[in-house]
Amino acid sequence: xxxxxxxxxxxxxxxxxxxxxxxxxxxxxxxxxxxxxxxxxxxxxxxxxxxxxxxxxxxxxxxxxxxxxxxxxxxxxxxxxxxxxxxxxxxxxxxxxxxxxxxxxxxxxxxxxxxxxxxxxxxxxxxxxxxxxxxxxxxxxxxxxxxxxxxxxxxxxxxxxxxxxxxxxxxxxxxxxxxxxxxxxxxxxxxxxxxxxxxxxxxxxxxxxxxxxxxxxxxxxxxxxxxxxxxxxxxxxxxxxxxxxxxxxxxxxxxxxxxxxxxxxxxxxxxxxxxxxxxxxxxxxxxxxx
Length: 290
What we know:
Elements: H1 8-25, H2 30-38, E1 44-50, E2 59-64, E3 68-69, E4 72-80, E5 86-95, E6 99-100, E7 109-113, H3 117-120, E8 129-138, E9 141-150, H4 151-160, E10 169-172, H5 173-178, E11 184-185, E12 190-191, E13 197-198, H6 203-208, H7 214-240, H8 244-289
Antiparallel strand pairs: 1-2, 1-10, 2-4, 3-4, 4-5, 6-7, 7-8, 8-9, 10-11, 12-13
Helix pairs in contact: 1-7
């Protein structure tokens, strides 16, 4: 299912919340700067949406390729509270494979956990025991139910429910900030030697985009709230002022306020100069009397 449109300001605030602590780690050492470049100079923002609690509204999932290993990503989850407000769940998902439940009485996600590598060594796949996980979403928490099943059965379930795999979209972090491109659906990922996800169509560009640093990303993220506030203030003024003459009055009022501030500052300066002058005269008279 494609991510339904949401206000960009709400999406940016959600991205800032999850990404700022991650990106800051890449600015604190030479090792961090090197890792930033190896990760494609910011890597990808990744998102998907699905109604996972059966209320008829989409929940939103965001991830960063900076904060994962291969396809195993951490997905903070947000619920749409209306009025362009996304509220984060207290829990997140750490998964690499998943599909949406088709049972309306048991909504959520399913995922498969493979047995540890040592338990698979020397065994055929049909001998493995895997864990089927059902994730239930009841804001603000995500709960899990576990069931051990033969791997061949859970693998078959994953393939049989391919039409229930949420549509995943991605955008390079640098493109998210400068709006060169929009989110695009990802049909297939590749994994670099550093175990980072990438798409062949733009990986070379991402690797060479060394002008976009972690410090640049932090600056862009810190600017999000102030930009959102300015947009809200502009929208509020636009809704409040309809008569052009009211615009003139508003602008005039701003000018008057500014002039009044200049008057206060100028007056205070003159008083200080006058007091210094009086003190200088008193000191001079004392020296003359002595």
